[in-house]
């Protein structure tokens, strides 16, 4: 199928550059966020219920992401006036699941031209030609895309999982390990597979590791140790 001007960045690519107007003023992306982790995410439209529930949840977690040296940046194919009116409504009128008075302080991009959404593969025409899907890009402090998650229009994201992914990526970088299914801080981590017979023999004798087989060895890193390095 012809790509009709849509492109799909991939894990390992540099985040495509753009400038944009946002609810917090103009941004130059990703240069303005060098040295920080960024979660760039799209939502289908302002003044819609699933998106409102997501913004209330992300808004209530702003401090937690800041503590992880992570900047949140939202985007939809709506203009600035709509964004501002919607965020004011969320703050002044919506009380949902005990969340109220939520002041969204992270930038929300005006992408009425769809330039950014098309460039980031956020428009998936089989789902909608005019609304962005719920895309999430995790971008590291060097501007490299490290994880991409897509959700359809009708399914709200799991924000605990988004935070877990961010903590997981920082742990992978800080400790040079891999992380098993459902990993959480304090769980065992995976030691990279050896590439020589000698290294295999050595690792199965290593008392600090637990080997389920020669290619599948883990070690412990305490929750405190993981947490002491988060935000890096
Ligand atoms: C919502 O956010 O509620 C929504 C947006 C687009 C399509 C379906 C639901």
Low-confidence stretches: none
> Helix and strand succession?
EEEHHEHEHEEHEHEEH
* CATH-assigned fold name of the largest domain: Glutaredoxin
Distance between the termini: 41 Å
The CATH first-level class of the largest domain comes to Alpha Beta
CATH homology superfamily name of the largest domain: Glutaredoxin
- Largest sheet data: 5 strands, mixed
Look at the helices and sheets and give the structural class.
alpha+beta
Strand order of the largest sheet: 5-4-3-6-7
Number of domains: 2
Shape estimate = elongated
Average pLDDT across residues? 96
Beta fraction:
15-25%
Helix content: 25-40%
CATH architecture of the largest domain: 3-Layer(aba) Sandwich
**In total, how many beta strands?**
10
Q: Give a list of the ligands.
A: benzoic acid
The radius of gyration is: 20 Å
Task: Describe it.
It is a single chain. This protein is an alpha+beta fold and 232 residues long. It has 2 domains: 4-157, Glutaredoxin; 176-229, Antioxidant, Horf6, Chain A, domain 2 (2-Layer Sandwich). Helix content is 30%, strand content 19%. It contains 7 helices and 10 strands. It has helices at 49-60, 62-67, 80-93, 115-119, 159-175, 197-205, 223-228, and strands at residues 18-20, 27-29, 37-42, 70-76, 108-110, 134-139, 145-151, 189-190, 210-213, 216-219. The strands form 3 sheets. A 5-stranded mixed sheet has the order 5-4-3-6-7. A 3-stranded antiparallel sheet has the order 8-10-9, with no helix packed on it. A hairpin with a 2-residue loop joins strand 9 (210-213) and strand 10. The longest helix is centred in the last third of the chain and has 17 residues, at 159-175. The radius of gyration is 20 Å and the shape is elongated. The mean pLDDT is 96. The site of benzoic acid has 9 residues, from helix 1.
């Amino acid at each position: 199928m012809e790509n009709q001007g849509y492109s799909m960045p991939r894990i390992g690519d540099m985040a495509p550059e753009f400038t944009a107007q946002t609810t917090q003023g103009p941004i130059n992306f990703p240069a303005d966020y060098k040295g920080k982790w960024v979660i760039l995410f799209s939502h289908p439209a302002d003044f819609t219920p699933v998106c409102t529930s997501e913004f209330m949840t992300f808004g209530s977690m702003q401090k937690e992401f800041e503590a992880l040296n992570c900047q949140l940046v939202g985007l939809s194919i709506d203009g600035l006036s709509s964004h501002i009116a919607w965020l004011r409504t969320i703050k002044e009128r919506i009380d949902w699941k005990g969340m109220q008075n939520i002041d969204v302080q992270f930038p929300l991009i005006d992408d009425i031209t769809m330039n950014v959404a098309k460039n980031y593969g956020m428009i998936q025409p089989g789902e909608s030609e005019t609304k962005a899907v719920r895309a999430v890009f995790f971008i590291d402090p060097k501007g490299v895309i490290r994880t991409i998650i897509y959700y359809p229009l009708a399914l709200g994201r799991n924000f605990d999982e988004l935070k877990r992914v961010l903590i997981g990526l920082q742990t992978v970088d800080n400790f040079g390990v891999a992380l098993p299914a459902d990993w959480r801080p304090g769980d065992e981590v995976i030691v990279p597979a050896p590439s020589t017979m000698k290294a295999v023999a050595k690792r199965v004798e290593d008392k600090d590791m637990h080997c389920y087989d020669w290619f599948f060895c883990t070690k412990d890193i305490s929750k405190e140790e993981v947490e002491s390095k988060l935000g890096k």
